[in-house]
Structures are given as structure tokens and as C-alpha cells.
Amino acid sequence: MIIEIKSPKKGTIGKINVSVGDKVTAGQELLSLETKKGNAVVKSQHDGAVESIEVEEGAEVKALDILLKIAGAQETAVQKTEEKVKSEEKIECDITIIGGGPGGYVAAIKGAKLGAKVVLIEEGALGGTCLNYGCIPTKALVRSAEVFDSFKEAEEYGLSVKDYCVDMEKVIDRKNAIVSRLVGGVEDLLEKNNIRVISGRGKLINKDTVQAETEDKIIEVNSKDIIIATGSEPSCPPIPGANSKSVVTSKEILDLKELPEKFAIVGGGVIGMEIAFIFASFGVEVFVIEFLDDVLQTLDEDVIEEIKTAADQKGIKIFTGSEVEEVIDTLNEKFMVRFTKDGRPEYLAVDKILMCTGRKPYLEGLGIEAVGIELNENKRGLKVNEKMQTNIDNIYAIGDVTDIMQLAHVASHQGIVAVENIMGHNAEMDYSAVPSAIFTHPEIASVGLTEKEAQSKGLNIEVGKFPYAANGKALTVGDDRGFIKIIKDQDTEKIVGAHIIGINAADLISSLTIAVKNGLTTKQITETIFAHPTTAEVIHEGVLSVEGGALHFAE
């Protein structure tokens, strides 16, 4: 048996008193931890041998980070005979929040700022999937990939760069440092807003009470209102062989310190395509296997075709309309993916496989059945109204657990709406202008209606496009791929949708989100002055394209 020794709180690793292979006994001091409130000593609770040391002296860690692993761990005779009784505590507050991701922790801070006494319960690391295993770490890898691509293209800019390579250990270390800094920032914000954080699993006992179980306590939290923000987890289909050691999820792939030669990604959605571009930049041969007829299927066809062209130039091989049937382990440490395309069996020999087939709301052990909380129509997430209330008036749900939109910024805004309603303000969720960003290379960003959605609604639309190839800033940067697409409702003159594929797309979409949210007309945009030379000029030109024609592009 291997036991993980975890950090009891945020701090800096002091002196490490053991080495790998050392025999340890229960009660032995393993290392010291420097915290804001003084030094703490981390002791072994078991007899065994040090299997691995996961940290270095001077490293910053957060609560529940793994510090060491003890192999062959056995309970001592005293531990076996002594009854392990956890202490109990009862506390009262105004709002109890289960889950400390981008929905939960933002709701906690908002509640505290509005005068509520808030308790936040989080089983894992603060920041949830977004900060620890999703948005932030993937973008750190995206940036490393971009820098590596810049080295490869240096001669095009009149520069000579020699002897460069990918050091995945340093790439992952940089990613971890960014994650640690941001999670530490969340911890500080919660502390400064006097929010009590309980590191444990939360479970609904009744409509007013949540039980939180920590390593040494059972805490009963009673409050007037409760917010469920437990997020989601990877959803893996029941494919034979999916438990092979070659298979990883979107969580494990972010700690991969050795690049595979050949890499299969099962699923061509947002996460799958982002990972595909990252690893292709690092020189890995990447294959994407997608069940649907196209990758990123929610986008318009012209955007999909543009990103598929970029993927092809990157060497990414995409198989659409393909169903994975089996993962097969071979004798030479290679792994075979068997899938069906156009009714024919196909085989791929690879070193690593990423299962990236979506995420499902995390409801396990939450106790929703006992309280009677209803699920939504597809029976996946918790059913909520526009105020983020469940069918139990004082229990709210936000973020991925609602299965409405699996986006961190949506979860945060839902958290704000829920808290405002709890505190007596009238607030409702509006999903008409939610921006989304995909960090492929080039980036993709959208807001409002797609062209096919607008057509299905029967709107009288006009569509304008402007290519990055006609933008001066894009040319100076050296990446003129892509275009902007503006969708105008001709009856109202308002912008109802905008889509960008190209450099800085994820940043540029915010301006168009303001336009869609506030019902701005195309004339209002064309009369606005945009700085030159910037990539933001594609917005101006894109809107001009539905107002008589772009100035710097002749169609």
C-alpha cells in the first residue's frame, strides 16, 4: 500500500528530513512547512519507506498538495487498537458554498462583500478544475508551444537561433508555478474577506445543513442559503481497454513530462483540439479521432474549415465520423487504437492516448436525493431557474454542475447572480452574449449567434468578413491566418453574432461581447475610432464589411 502525505495548508517547504528509500515510523518528522502563522511539522502517520518526495526545499505548496509517498505503509499496533474518533463541530453562517472553483470562490467573495458570513467547503485544491487542471494550465502549455514555434520560425524574422529543444520537465514546472501562484492568490482573497474555508467533502444533510468531513473533524454547517458548485469531471465512454496504462484524461496529460512520439486524441472538441495543437508544436505526431462529422461542430463551417487547414499544416491528422471500438495493449510497449470509419475498421499504433470525450456534472456523494433536488431534462445536471435556484428555494446551483454552459466565466457570473438573489437583489442570468475562446493556433473566439443559428431563427441577416491577411499588425507579427465574421440583423441594424479565428481572437472578442450584450448597431461601431496598427482594426473592418464594404479589402 502507498500512502500520500499531503500538505495541511499553504506554505513554503522548509527542511526535508528524509530521503527516498528511508525507513520511517509513525510520528516521525518528515519535513517542516513555513506558513503565515509560523512553522508546522509534517509527520508520518504510518510505518513504511519513502517511495518518492514530490517537493523540494523552498517550494511553494498549497493545502492538499502531495508532499511525499510512503510505500508499504502499515498501521502501527497502537493505531490498530485505538479507536479513531473524529471531533465534531457545529457552526452557523449565512451562506454555505460546496465547491471552490471559479463559481464557488467568486460567489464566496461576492457574498462576503455584500455583508454575508460565508463558509466555503472544498475537497481538493481551491480554484477547481479551471485553475488546477483546465483553463490556466492548458494556457501555460499553449504559451510554451507558441514560444517553441517562434524558435522554429526565427530565421523568417532575420534571427538565428541554435540548439533549442523542448524540456517537458521545465515546461510542466513553469505551469505548476503559475497554477500555484494563482491558487495562492485565491486563498489570500478568501482569507482577506474573512471567509472560512473547510478542506473536506461537503454533503447535504437537509435543506439547511451541510456536513463537511475533514481528516480529523466532522463539521456541521447550518445556514439560511446553500450554493452547490461542485463542477464536473471527465466523462469517458465504456470503451474496452480504456483503463490501459496508455490512456490519460485531460487532467493527467497536463503533468506529462515525457513526450510521446505518436499521440492519439479521442474527441475533437475544445479540449482535444487545444491539446492537439500544443503537442504538435512540440514535435509529436498527433491523431484526432472524432465521432461526429466534424471537429468543433458547434462552430460555423467556414471557421471549422480554417482551423482544419491550420491543423493540416501542423501535421495533425483528423479522422471524423469515426468511432473508437477498442484500445489494445501490444507486446512492444505500443498501444493500438481500433476505430471504425465509413464502416471500415482502422488501426493506429501510438504511445499515448488522451480520452477527451466531454465532462459530466459531479454529483457523487452530494446528497441531492435526500433533499429532493431535481435534475434537468437530460438528467445530467441540477435544474435551476434564471435566478440559479433549484426547486428547493434556498438551495442554488452554479457552474458545470448545472450542465448549462461548461465555461469558467459563466460559472463565476452565475455565482454572482445567485449571491445577489440571496442577498435580496433581483438578478437573472442572461446567456445571449456569452463569449467563448478556443486556444488553438490560431485562436478561435465567438459571441452571440452563429450564422446557422441565425438562419434557423429566421432572422434577416447580413454576414460580413474581413481577412487577417489585410491587417497590418498581423503581417508584422508574422501570422496573417484567419478572418473575422460579423453577423448583422438587417431589421434592427444590430450585431447579433461575431466570430474570429486569428491571432488575439480571445482578447478581441470582449469588445464584440459588449456590442452584442448592449444591442449596439453596426453604425455605432463604424463611427468608433480604432487604434492603428492593431489587430483590433479587424473588428472595425469586419463591421464595415456589412456597412457598404471594408476599406482595406476588395472582395
Q: Report the strand count.
A: 30
Overall mean pLDDT stands at 93
Measure the end-to-end span. Answer: 68 Å
Helix count, per DSSP? 14
- Please compute the radius of gyration using only Cα atoms: 26 Å
- The share of residues in helices is 25-40%
Characterize the main sheet.
7 strands, mixed
Q: Quaternary status of these chains?
A: single chain
Written description of the protein model:
The chain is of the alpha/beta class and 555 residues long. It has 14 helices and 30 strands. Strands 9, 10, 11, 12, 13, 14 and 25 form a seven-stranded mixed beta sheet that branches. The chain has a five-stranded parallel beta sheet with strand order 16-23-17-18-19, covered by helices on one side. A hairpin with a 5-residue loop joins β26 (436-438) and β27 (444-448). It is globular.
Features of the shown structure:
555 residues; alpha/beta; seven-stranded mixed beta sheet; five-stranded parallel beta sheet; 14 helices; 30 strands
